[in-house]
User: Which sequence fits this backbone?
């Protein structure tokens, strides 16, 4: 076990060196490609390259980049890597501003290096991730697992691992806990622990019990402390809806958080920077288009140009959402949705709806901080009042800010929502997004929006 721990430490050091080398190499190659730079005199450029290459692993360590990623999402890893590099750039930029030394360096070199490091780093890390998955799928680089628990739970874990061989876990032994055995089961585990103190044919022990058998888990965990091996508890929570769950410590007590927002702590700031930065860029890019649409709506339909309505946002709080008006002006009592051939929708409004261009004013909502670029789409107040009683997990989608686009939308779940079953499916997609949020996942959804999210076949 000591050798495994040492190997893990060496791997962490290797990955930190890997990231530092990428940053240093990209910065040096970028500088070499710009022969006009006056970097031959003095140490300013080499010093900044060394500082940046050492700061990146430090920021990555702070954000958890070098923890084991076996069994975790590629997009989550790339998102953390990008966040680490953004934090690195921010620290360096603040230092240059405070010391008034920014003028020493070429803006083109700094910008090209910043972009190059994140692109090259993501490509190489992605390639390494894929290579490791293929190696593990072929039966190499495996972690051997001993599973102790009830028959049903052991079978559930075995099936999950059989369907995902690329995770690199293999159940090599299992101890079934049968009610008829009584104390015999604990004696078997005690004996196994004593025999396996210095050598064993497994790398980890997984306990697979329902929450109701917490006392048995406690006794087994105590017995397994005799071995220097990782012990994991996989509670049977198949009947409980989990939302970005984790284990935390509160008042010196351990808590299994069943429902929590994924955007707490540093990740909230990562999401905020993403929304403000990309939102500002997109707002500037689409500003000419919005001005043209504004003029066309004013000319063809008269005022008002914008449709304003209150929607529920983060934690269910109301905010005012903006869209380009697509219907003839009429009192907005209730929340009747547009239907195919709806006479209220004008020809120009129909075009704006099909192309989703009517949603562009929501970029202002993003810059206000009331919406995100990516998140569950905000529904009308009346729909929320109805569906919160029909779908018990419905309001969990308000644990994050609503978005201009979302995981449900890029998978075709948009438009009319009168079918409860269809809405329930949309909510499941929303909760999957919340439970698996990462910066990389957001970027994936934005990319999918370009290819499949703009064209709307619904009215």
Assistant:
């Amino acid at each position: 076990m000591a050798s495994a721990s040492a190997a893990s430490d060496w791997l962490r050091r290797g990955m930190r060196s890997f990231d530092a080398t990428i940053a240093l190499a990209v910065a040096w190659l970028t500088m070499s490609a710009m022969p006009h730079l006056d970097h031959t005199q003095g140490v300013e450029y080499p010093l900044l390259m060394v500082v940046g290459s050492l700061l990146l692993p430090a920021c990555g360590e702070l954000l958890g980049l070098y923890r084991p990623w076996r069994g975790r999402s590629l997009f989550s890893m790339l998102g953390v890597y990008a966040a680490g590099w953004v934090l690195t750039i921010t620290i360096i930029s603040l230092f240059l501003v405070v010391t008034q030394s920014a003028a020493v360096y070429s803006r083109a070199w700094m910008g090209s290096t910043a972009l190059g490091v994140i692109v090259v780093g993501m490509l190489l890390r992605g390639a390494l991730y894929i290579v490791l998955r293929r190696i593990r799928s072929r039966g190499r680089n495996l972690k051997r697992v001993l599973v102790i628990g009830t028959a049903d739970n052991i079978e559930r874990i075995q099936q999950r691992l059989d369907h995902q061989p690329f995770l690199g876990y293999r159940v090599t032994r299992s101890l079934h806990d049968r009610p008829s055995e009584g104390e015999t089961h604990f004696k078997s585990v005690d004996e196994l622990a004593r025999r396996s103190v210095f050598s064993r044919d497994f790398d980890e022990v997984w306990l697979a019990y329902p929450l109701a058998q917490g006392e048995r888990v406690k006794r087994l965990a105590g017995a397994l402390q005799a071995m220097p091996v990782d012990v994991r508890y996989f509670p049977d929570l198949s009947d409980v809806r989990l939302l970005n769950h984790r284990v935390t410590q509160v008042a010196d007590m351990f808590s299994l958080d069943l429902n929590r927002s994924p955007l707490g702590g540093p990740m909230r700031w990562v999401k905020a920077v993403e929304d403000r930065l990309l939102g500002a860029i997109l707002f500037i890019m689409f500003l000419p288009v919005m001005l043209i649409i504004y003029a066309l709506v004013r000319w063809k339909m008269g005022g008002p140009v914008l449709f304003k309505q209150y929607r529920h946002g983060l934690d269910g709080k109301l905010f005012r959402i903006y869209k380009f008006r697509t219907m003839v002006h009429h009192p907005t009592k209730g929340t009747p949705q547009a239907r195919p051939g709806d006479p209220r929708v004008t020809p120009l409004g129909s075009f704006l709806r099909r192309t989703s261009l009517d949603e562009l004013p929501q970029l202002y909502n993003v810059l206000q901080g009331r919406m995100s670029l990516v998140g569950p789409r905000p529904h009308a107040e009346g729909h929320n009042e109805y569906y919160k009683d029909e779908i018990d997990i419905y309001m969990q989608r308000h644990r994050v800010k609503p978005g201009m686009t979302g995981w449900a939308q890029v998978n075709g779940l948009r438009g009319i929502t009168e079918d409860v079953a269809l809405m329930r499916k949309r909510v499941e997609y929303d909760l999957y997004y919340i439970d698996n949020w990462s910066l990389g996942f957001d970027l994936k959804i934005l990319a999918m929006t370009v290819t499949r999210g703009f064209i709307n076949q619904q009215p």
About this structure: Confidence is low (pLDDT under 50) at residues 1-5. Strands lie at 143-149, 169-176, 204-208, 230-233, 246-250, 253-257, 306-312, 318-324, 372-374, 403-405.
